[in-house]
Design a protein that fits this description.
The protein is mainly α. It has three domains: 4-46; 64-103; 119-158, no CATH class. Helix content is 55%, strand content 2%. A two-stranded antiparallel ribbon has the order 1-2. It is elongated and about 85 Å long.
């Protein structure tokens, strides 16, 4: 919902009999032309722009009450599956995902577990990297063919 100041400016311009497209351009597209048209129809019906409730379809799932429930659940148990919580609260996963991401500002992440290498393994990796760097030339690299185990012919010969 736009601020009251913008609504007052639009109301003044409507009273000066400007078109919605002119008003939208005057405000540097701060308010879209369709919004100005909607406000104009409200003004013509009631004589004022009264936006006590936001226009459009009312929210049934992403209400303040549900958002508060989800926030409390995450405070009680930090690591929780959105899928399980959606099933418990009887909300779709997508709606719960929107609540978590947009309303609560949380994001999902997965901790990547890296394998623990011994010092000997690290040294062998370094030795291999140096060997590759020393022994391979640009000409030999061009001869290497990387495949995903798909058979195709090169000069009439199947790769294996």
């Amino acid at each position: 919902m736009k601020s009251q100041d913008v609504q007052k400016i639009v109301l003044l311009k409507l009273q000066m009999e400007k078109t919605p497209s002119e008003i939208s351009k005057d405000l540097c597209n701060l308010v879209s032309e369709s919004t100005v048209r909607r406000w104009n129809s409200i003004y013509l019906k009631t004589g004022k722009i009264n936006l006590n409730k936001s226009p459009g379809r009312p929210r049934k799932i992403r209400t303040k009450n549900v958002i508060k429930k989800v926030k409390n659940r995450f405070q009680r148990k930090a690591r929780q599956s959105v899928r399980k919580m959606a099933r418990q609260l009887q909300i779709s996963e997508r709606s719960l995902g929107r609540i978590v991401k947009e309303d609560l500002g949380l994001y999902a992440y997965r901790i990547t577990v890296q394998p623990k290498l011994t010092d000997a393994q690290k040294q062998s990796q370094i030795r291999f990297a140096y060997w590759v760097r020393r022994s391979l030339t640009k000409a030999s690299i061009r001869k290497i063919m990387f495949t995903d185990e798909k058979y195709f012919t090169v000069d009439g010969i199947f790769n294996r």
